[in-house]
């Protein structure tokens, strides 16, 4: 019932079920579990009266949907501001995922937003120096892991603290977190670094829903090519699926990319999958897209794999967005630790080499940090600086 209602947003298929009050409560909870509340409410508004949810739930849902629209307006404005900020410093930038994907939706203001991911050219040292210059990062050392009010850094981006408007920004000095497998990741990163140079400026749909050329409020930022987005976001999906989980928002984002990509773009990406270590994930995702959204085979990149696809869909529905509702995460610290390691062993059947490198890097990091854990007498290393 949930998937049938979701399909009405992107297909011409009618929703023929008359849900009960309990059904609607379940559908509402599933929508938020998958971070699809705004998109699903857009489907609800198109239903005839006899199929509508109870009035109290509908009003609550409507308020939630308006909040999402407001957040999209806020993030669009912030993405445009950051783009101008870096451009004034002579640095190219591009918005990754998030708001770049939202503009492709039937109603761009219904996609439930998260943070802003923005790539800035120049490499780690130049980007960090630039962030200090414009006041987005202070002079203190960058943290290794999250601590309120302090910026953190990984090997591919700087995670800025939440600003006064509640917006979280990740500034990427590499275009992608990439693969865990260093051999495929090297090829992937080289290609992405070249392709992102072809980014172009776009104007997002204004908050009132009018098209950009109809006099609505202007929000302009740069977005990568469709080829870049298809490859980079597939790598993003693979990374999170194998190391935590993904939700239907990731799947719908990819659906929007495929529908807006040209046949040449899709063909090019299909030819890169094996070289970049993305073939198994792509074939599973294509099956999920066909099963959930009835995507036409002509719009897919590569073949479908029903065995891996069913596995992916089960984990999506069980775990929700980023796998945060996964059953194996609902226990205590040590049980979660053991369960997570066992889940990784099972995932080796999905993609042996990628999961093997996940485990190698996990245990390498685990043993590297033992002295620090002993020194600070804690399992949480929030005070470690780099």
What Rg is obtained from the alpha carbons, in whole angstroms?
A: 21 Å
Order of helices and strands: HHHHEHEHEEEHEEHHHHHHHH
Helix share of residues?
A: 40-55%
Strand content: 5-15%
Query: What is the averaged pLDDT score?
Result: 89
> What is the count of helical runs?
15
Low-confidence stretches: 213-217, 382-386
Observed structural traits:
386 residues, alpha+beta, 5-stranded mixed beta sheet, two-stranded antiparallel sheet, 15 helices, 7 strands, disordered C terminus
What does this protein structure show overall?
The chain is an alpha+beta fold. 52% of the residues lie in helices and 7% in strands. Strand 3 (152-153) and strand 4 (157-159) form a beta hairpin. The chain is globular and about 60 Å long. The N and C termini lie far apart (49 Å). Mean pLDDT is 89; it is low at 213-217 and 382-386.
């Amino acid at each position: 019932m949930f998937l049938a209602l979701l399909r009405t947003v992107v297909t011409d298929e009618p929703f023929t079920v008359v849900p009960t009050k309990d059904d609607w409560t379940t559908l509402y909870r599933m929508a938020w579990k998958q971070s699809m509340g705004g998109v699903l409410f857009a489907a609800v508004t198109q239903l005839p009266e006899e199929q509508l949810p109870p009035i109290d739930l509908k009003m609550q849902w409507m308020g939630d949907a308006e909040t999402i629209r407001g957040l999209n307006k806020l993030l669009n404005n912030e993405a445009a501001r950051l783009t101008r900020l870096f451009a004034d410093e002579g640095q190219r930038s591009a918005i990754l995922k998030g708001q770049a994907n939202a503009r492709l939706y039937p109603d761009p203001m219904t996609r439930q937003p998260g943070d802003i991911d923005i790539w800035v050219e120049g490499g780690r040292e130049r980007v960090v120096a630039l962030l200090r210059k414009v006041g987005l990062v202070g002079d203190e050392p960058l943290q290794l892991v999250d601590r309120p009010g302090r910026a953190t850094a990984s090997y591919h981006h700087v995670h800025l603290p939440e600003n006064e408007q509640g917006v979280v920004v990740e500034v990427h000095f590499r275009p992608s977190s990439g693969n865990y497998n260093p051999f495929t990741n090297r090829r992937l990163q080289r290609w992405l670094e070249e392709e992102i140079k072809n980014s172009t400026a776009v104007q997002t749909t204004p908050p009132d829903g009018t098209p950009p050329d109809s006099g609505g409020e202007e929000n302009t930022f740069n977005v990568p090519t469709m080829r870049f987005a298809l490859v980079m976001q597939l790598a993003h999906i693979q990374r999170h699926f194998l190391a935590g989980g993904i939700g239907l928002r990731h799947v719908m984002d990819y659906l929007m990319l495929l529908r807006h990509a040209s046949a040449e773009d899709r063909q090019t990406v299909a030819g890169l999958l094996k070289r970049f270590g993305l073939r198994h994930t792509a074939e599973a995702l294509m099956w999920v897209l066909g099963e959930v959204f009835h995507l036409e085979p002509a719009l897919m990149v590569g073949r479908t794999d029903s065995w891996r696809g069913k596995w992916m869909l089960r984990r999506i529905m069980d775990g929700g967005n980023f796998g945060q509702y996964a059953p194996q995460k609902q226990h205590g610290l040590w049980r979660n630790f053991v369960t997570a390691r066992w889940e990784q062993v099972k995932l080796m059947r999905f993609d042996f080499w990628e999961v093997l490198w996940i485990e190698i890097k996990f245990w390498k990091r685990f043993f590297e940090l033992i002295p620090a854990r002993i020194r600070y007498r804690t399992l949480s290393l929030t005070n470690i600086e780099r």
